[in-house]
Amino acid sequence: MSDIRFTKDHEWVLVDGDTATIGISDYAQEQLGDVVFVELPDIGKTLEQGDEAAVVESVKAASEVYAPVSGEVIEVNEELEAAPGRVNEDAMGEGWFVKLKLTDEDELDDLMDEAAYAKYIKELD
Amino acid sequence: MNSMNAKGRPTGTGAETGFTPHETFTGNRGLVQEEPLIFELDSPGASGVDLDEPEEFAPRLGAAARQGRIGLPGLSEPEVMRHYVRLSQKNYAIDSGLYPLGSCTMKHNPRLNEKMARLPGFGDVHPLQPQQTVQGALELIDTLAHWLKELTGMPAVAMSPKAGAHGELCGMMAIDAALRARGEEGTRKRVLVPESAHGTNPATAAQIGFTVDSIPATDDGHVDVAAFKAKLGPDVAAIMLTNPNTCGLFERDIIEIADAVHEAGGYFYCDGANFNAIAGRVRPGDLGVDAMHINLHKTFSTPHGGGGPGAGPVVLSEALAPFAPLPWIVHDKGAYRAIEHESEGTGQPFGRMTAFHGQMGMFVRALSYMLSHGADGIRQASEDAVLSANYILASLKDVMSAPYEGPCMHEALFDDSFLKGTGVETLDFAKAMIDEGYHPMTMYFPLVVHGAMLIEPTESESKDSLDLFIATLRDLAESAKRGETERFSGAPYLAPRRRLDETQAARKPILRWQHGRNEPASKAAE
Amino acid sequence: MRYLPLTKDDRAQMLAAIGAKSVDELFKDVPEAARLGGLIDLPRRQGEMEVERQLAAMAGKNIAASQVPFFVGAGAYKHHIPATVDHLIQRSEFLTSYTPYQPEITQGTLQYLFEFQTQVALLTGMEVANASMYDGSTACGEAVLMAHRVTKRKKAVLSGNLHPHYQDVVANLSDFGSYKLVTEPPCPKGTEGLAGEIDEETSCVVVQNPDVFGHVRDLSALAEAAHAKGALMIVVVPEIVSLGLITPPGEMGADIVVGEGQSLGNGLNFGGPYVGLFAAKQKFVRQMPGRLCGETVDAEGKRGFVLTLSTREQHIRREKATSNICTNSGLCCLAFTIHLSLLGEEGYTRLARINHANAVKLADALGAVPGVKVMNETFFNEFTIETPKPGAEVIDALVEKGVLGGVPLSRLMPGNDAMKNLIAVASTEVNSDQDRAAYARALKEVLA
């Protein structure tokens, strides 16, 4: 299964096999405004669900990106360092942050599916 | 005799010929001059200072003598003068207009104070001169300390902190030192800070290893006392509270809050940024405060200077006074003495905040301000500041939206609900003020209010000035509601610069001039 | 009161508009117990003349540096400041402006900050500099905290020849922040070797050049030793004029350079306000404290300047900020920048040569006084002498002879017997041959 899941803090996670790709939602990038900097974790770092995985900054705000699921960092999107605007252009695709080696697939059950998330952000506005 | 020369009369507006001046050859617009960076004005070899080359001598620099050029530009004195005068003309200033920045207390800066600070006996004395040669300087610091203690009703003051945030650091260190002396080092590491606090409060607490626990605000803009009390415990070191608070309100439960934190074994740090509302009317010492910094560059009018320097002396309660940092001044045997080391005095100083004695230049200015005002003038100034803010609040709350019922203290807070549906945001509204000749108010702070606009007029404005400001904001608010969005969305149109691209500045930071890289008026290289 | 524009009538009209009977009503949230009925027990308002008279009386009790042969240094230096500097910094538009949060109407401040940053980077030989700290000592403290963040280590090694006040500031921050600190004992001969103290836990080594005794050193080997262990080298420059003659710390391998900028544009002011200089390698920029000004363009494509990388700062990042600093030394930066612009490359380097030449002449003159030994082989405009009597007594006796002869090192390091007879002596461009002769003569008499 490769369904996308969302957290209440607006991270998304897409699982393919035991690889979980993590980013921030389109809604989140819009709220942030122009992303100017992304701080990514070291490869090999182990993250528990809810740990700070990355930091994303706009001109006037900085937000932590929390790991939606637990796992070991196996890849980071280095392109964001030179081109942080990619987060704004394609938050759900090219603008991904981190890939984790998933340790507990059950954690996905805590998260929202696309429809639930759409409803959630509608209520926020 | 000739009658009036026709050429002395005003010419037409240009409208009749269809000519509207747009771009000039120089890029200048009348008195607004485009000015390159000083590095781009280099005449190699020129200097604005005449110095004679020393006679031949044998240097004693060892292996560390500099090789090669530094890269500084050369200019004559008139060129330097013109450059900086032109730069000055691109700045807004309190001397040129109302500067309603909430939390910043942009009041009149009397020039007497500048003159006093430049007396050679103050401006031209060295901090490490023998103390018998600086008795007057020590007397000045001691006199200012006396005024600060009297005005705050506190028994002690640490004079050396260099600015408000440095004062916060000093106060929190004194608190930590007092906890250590009680044997509670490491057990009390939590500091309670309201959501509405200045960013310096949590930053200060974190800098010396405290964890920050946020206290929510009530719907009427005060500290939620119940929530605060629920957070108290044996691990709480202190509460850091701004009073009057950043919503422009006096914390009416402040004595109850102070008592509760003391009962729980913690201390009460008060952020004194808003002291200008209450100086001469309320003494923080009567509120149960243990430590409070005083921004001399706010309440006591030392000029902001484009971001500094400031000064942040910290008044301390009996409980914290023994831990005050070095140095301090004592008066005995008919002379003043600066205590510069623990071994020379009594007390248990926690250390030293800075080299030397603190911001002497600011001390002179602040004392000059205080002596001019006197106890009566200081009280009147606070009353006028509060009156002016309330006048603004009362005069605008029908067209703008005030989240809290008045009366306010010396700041009037509005939110952006009056702009809902107009397509105009707080930022746009503020930028449109620039075209009207005003510096905007503080925006998006405090964080507890959506699209906040915090207006602090200070006591320095005449009623005519306040009335024009009020009329201007009314006009802008009504204009926004009428849907005249262009007036806002592209503003400012008439300032030396239009809105600047902060995204580009942050994505590809250019933090210095480099030869051939930043050419005048060119778009920065990608 | 001359500073308060509101009249009685104005106040009455405003109260009516508010719907309040009196100002007291506006203070109704103040608890009853804390309301002051009357005036605080302090003097009443006074006119300009009276204020001026009182303050001038206090000022008159001090000996100003320009009144006497003056040789006091140790972290603050008497220089001649061109009249243009003080005129320009008193222009209302600079003096009475706030932090440039609205760049469209504060380009004047922003552009001089950008010029200041560039000048500091050029002098120190570093890639980037910030828009100032409070002073050299607090900049030094912040540099150590920054090194801890960069290296994710917690131990600093301090040279014993770092100005003792600077040491105290670092110690204070380390103590409350629970960081480790190793401080070497002072070494008046200037032969201190620090490399051996640097280990794999060390985040930084902090060394002053010229040091508190005046010694000037090439720090390249120390930088290599620090880097070999993964530590940073922080160089402290207490006298910014020295970089007109000394190799910039950046060329010696420094990772962070801090300094005291008072010597350019800023008076002695009995210790403040001064201007803290802070420069670093570009790769550490996001860990820097304080404001940074950057270049950009406006909506019409015109070059302009803004405060940038603000997410490091307290007003955005709050408890995760790199520092709590907000107000810095804005106007002192301007004084620095104008003075340095007036000097230019030629003037600045010549000023440094004059300072050095004057100090060399003074060292020779004092060294010829019987019983006096000059401790330094190398120095810039300040050196240390050893006298047969305690330094503090010598300095006091010199005051009686109308000479301010320097800083007894026992004042900075009391309780250290090795400092007892040492005096730090500075000579800048303000000293004439007559001043030096007067000093040598007085010293001879004092020691006779």
Structure description:
Chain A contains four helices and nine strands. The longest helix of chain A has 11 residues, at 114-124. Chain A is α+β, with helices and mostly antiparallel strands. Chain A has a single domain, classed as Beta Barrel (OB fold (Dihydrolipoamide Acetyltransferase, E2P)). A six-stranded antiparallel beta sheet of chain A has the order 1-2-3-9-8-5. A three-stranded antiparallel beta sheet of chain A has the order 4-6-7. Helices cover 21% and strands 36% of the residues of chain A. With 526 residues, chain B is of the alpha/beta class. Chain B has two domains: 114-370, Type I PLP-dependent aspartate aminotransferase-like (Major domain) (Aspartate Aminotransferase, domain 2); 383-495, Aspartate Aminotransferase, domain 1, CATH 3.90.1150. Chain B has helices at 77-88, 111-117, 120-123, 135-152, 164-181, 200-207, 225-231, 254-263, 360-396, 426-435, 463-481, 486-489, 502-507; strands at residues 156-158, 190-194, 211-215, 236-242, 267-271, 291-293, 314-316, 328-332, 335-339, 412-414, 442-443, 453-455. In chain B, helix 2 runs antiparallel to helix 9 (360-396), helix 4 (135-152) packs parallel to helix 9 and helix 5 (164-181) packs across helix 6 (200-207). The radius of gyration of chain B is 27 Å and the shape is globular. The model of chain B is unreliable at 520-526 (pLDDT under 50). Chain C has 448 residues and is of the alpha/beta class. Chain C folds into two domains: 65-80 and 344-447, Aspartate Aminotransferase, domain 1; 83-339, 3-Layer(aba) Sandwich (Aspartate Aminotransferase, domain 2), CATH 3.40.640.10. Chain C contains 15 helices and 13 strands. A seven-stranded mixed beta sheet of chain C has the order 1-7-6-5-4-2-3, with helices on both faces. Chain C has a four-stranded antiparallel beta sheet with strand order 10-11-13-12. A two-stranded antiparallel sheet of chain C has the order 8-9. In chain C, strand 2, helix 8 and strand 3 form a beta-alpha-beta unit. Chain C is globular and about 80 Å long. The model of chain C has no long low-confidence stretch (mean pLDDT 97). Chains in contact: A-B, A-C, B-C. Chains B and C meet through helix 1, helix 2, helix 3, helix 4 and helix 5 of B and helix 1, helix 2, helix 3, helix 4 and helix 5 of C.
